[in-house]
Amino acid sequence: MLIGHAAQATLNFRAPLLADLVAAGWRVEVLAPDWTAAQRQRLQAMGVRAASFPLARTGLNPVQDLRTFVAILRHLRRERPQAVFTYAAKTNVWGMLAAWLAGVPRRVAMVEGLGYAFTDGAQGRRSWKQRALGALLAGLYRLAFAAAHRVVVLNPDDARDLQRGCGLSPRKTVLLGGIGVPLDEWPPHSPHTDPMTFTLVARLLREKGVLEFLHAARRVKARHPATRFWVLGPLDDNPGGLREADLRPWLDDGTVEWPGAVDVKPWLAQTSVFVLPSYYREGVPRSTQEAMAMGRPVITTDAPGCRETVVEGVNGFLVPPRDVDALERAMLRFIEEPALVARMGQESRRLAEERFDVRRANAVLMEMMGLR
After folding, report:
1. Is the pTM of this model over 0.85?
2. pLDDT tens profile 201-225
3. Were both Cys, which of 69, 113, 212, 325 would link to 94 (CB 3.0–4.6 Å)?
């Protein structure tokens, strides 16, 4: 049984794992709060069952969280799965504790980045609200990790911080290095330089560096008007979420295009350079892995999770978080040396094959669950 915080995210990011579990002969169920009929049908076509439970994805309402915990516990006691795999903060906490109380034989949690509660804000420090939320989440993680057999993390910074601050035992820690992508579904494309196009793919959060991207784009476009800038992704109800009004000045003056939440593949095919100036506590960004698989060079930040996707000067450039000047300089390098797009794009694909093959990642996860 997989327990996730959102049905669409599960389909987007866990579908290869579900397919591998079914192929190995396991009966698989996914517990998520918000299935549509079409999503249930898609799972059924894969040979996977869907079940629902109540979950408030954000906020700290004790009554709502208790309902979540009780619903998961009742479902686990009824279904009696051999293994439970959770991801996202709330499902890690309540899912692991419920699985422990239900006596599930194998319990594995995955922390895909530390998220908002552990992310410094625009001024380089956390707000009092983030500090309070971080302290509470650290305490809950201590309980959840005690209930887990293994805890999967995606980068060394998160492993260190969870061990120091949340009581995660090193012997329980599994460093995965990225959930991976199905490389055959994200094939490499020829380099694109006419026009030179910089693309950011992310939920529209301040901590994802969206505003830094917009400011750098305006500066670069003033010097090179033919350059194209795309922002791909939805608005988000996370506390750090931007509003459409925050983007409006850059949209109205033609600095960037924002088509919203789209199928990113055709857009990446026309992208020169993928940009993610995030200072969010990423695991290893899936969007960057996809762009690398398609042969796109990367500009990203020297921050936890992000730095795992770039070998400096080989497949792209690392810039300091929140540094618009450095981001502008990195963009200008590609404009002034367009041959870098092809060379670094080839290196991105090579690194994706070496580091981010979903088959390798799934094999590790299945072994942790005792299902291989």
Report:
1. yes
2. 999 999 999 999 999 999 999 999 9
3. 69
